[in-house]
Structures are given as structure tokens and as C-alpha cells.
Amino acid sequence: MTLAKALAPSQSLPVRALMVLGGSLFIAIAAQISVPMIPVPMTLQTLAILIVGLTYGARLGAATVLAYLVEGAMGLPVFANGANGAAFFGPTAGFLVGFVFMAWMVGYAADRGVRGVLATAAVCILASALLYVPGVAWAMALAELLGLDASKWGADNFAMIWQYYMAPFLLGDAVKAVLAALVVSGGWAALKGRRA
Ligand SMILES: O=C(O)CCCC[C@@H]1SC[C@@H]2NC(=O)N[C@@H]21
């Protein structure tokens, strides 16, 4: 049982479509709250994606992030700093694709009944850490495979990857993971309080 299902037990197709649209809008807004660093900005996207995944569950959470990526591919300025689908050919493409798995993973945990701030925060921290696998893999390996100039992205060795793609974000990502857990656990507590 997810929070969304507890709030709206009968999720008809129009309701789910609205949830996907609303969730993708939420992520797009969070993407604009950023510190515009080069090559990778600091943003609130992971906070929004974790909240969406935990609230919607694996399937709807992943579908919402997929819809978000499709909106960007269609040219809408939904990615960090108003970028659109061109970002799929830039240094953050691995993170964008990884967002789908991130939402799925925390949603799966929510579907399986993971509750409480500590357990939820642990899952969110793990999902946030795993996001760096596609994020870094794209910047370092795929870019070279496709003949793109990785050095322009500050990604031609692990020291640079650490400096530009990881170190500036790890603490903030952990804070966002805990915040997402607090928000969703707070949602559950509020719901229980209302029903008691
Ligand atoms: O181009 C985009 O819209 C994606 C930006 C990705 C930013 C990544 S997500 C993980 C890490 N934490 C941040 O705050 N920024 C990077």
C-alpha cells in the first residue's frame, strides 16, 4: 500500500493520468530550484523524485519520471535550468535516465511496506547513491564510446569525476534523502491522525 493509494483508493485511469502529470510538473519545478554549476548543477530533482516514488509506488513512480523525460524530449524546458531534450546529449544525461530507476526503487520499497523515517531514509540514501552509477557511467564511458569529448565535461579521469560529478553533491543528496523520508513519513502520520 502506498500513500497515494491510501489517500485515493480507487485510482481510475484519469486519476492516474492526473497524478503522472502533477508528479512530472512537481519534478520540473524542483529542477528549476538549482545552483547552476558546470557541468552538473545542484538541484532539488532528487528530492522531488524520491517523494514521487515513495508516494506513488514503483510502477506509477517510474511512469511519472518517464513522462517527465518525454516532456523534456518533446522540447519542454523541464530539466535543470530550463533545459529541454538537448540535455540527453549533455553531461547530465546519465542522471536523467537514472532518475527512472531511482523512482522505481524507492517505490518498490514503499510497495513492499517499508515505512518509518529511518528505514525510508536508508532506502532513499541507497537510491541516491546508485544514481551515480548511470550518472558517472554516461559522463565517463558512454561519452567516449559515442565519440563525444568527455574532457570538455570534466570527465576524463576519476579524479575529475569525483571533483565535478560527485563530491559537491553527496552531502546535499543525503539531506534530500532524509527530507523525502520525513515528508512521506509525515504524510503517513497525518493520514493516521486524521483516521484515528
Ligand atoms: O540536467 C538535469 O536536469 C539533471 C541534473 C542532474 C543533477 C544531479 S542529480 C544527482 C546530483 N545531485 C544534485 O543536486 N545534482 C546532481
Automatic annotation (TrEMBL):
InterPro entries: BioY (IPR003784). GO terms for cellular component: plasma membrane. The keyword Metal-binding does not apply. One of its GO terms (molecular function) is biotin transmembrane transporter activity. The chain crosses the membrane at residues 15-35, 47-68, 88-110, 117-141, 161-191. Keywords: Cell membrane, Membrane, Transmembrane, Transmembrane helix, Transport. It is found in: Cell membrane. Pfam families: BioY. It is a multi-pass membrane protein. Belongs to the BioY family. PANTHER family: BIOTIN TRANSPORTER BIOY. This is Biotin transporter. The lineage of its organism: Bacteria, Pseudomonadati, Pseudomonadota, Alphaproteobacteria, Rhodobacterales.
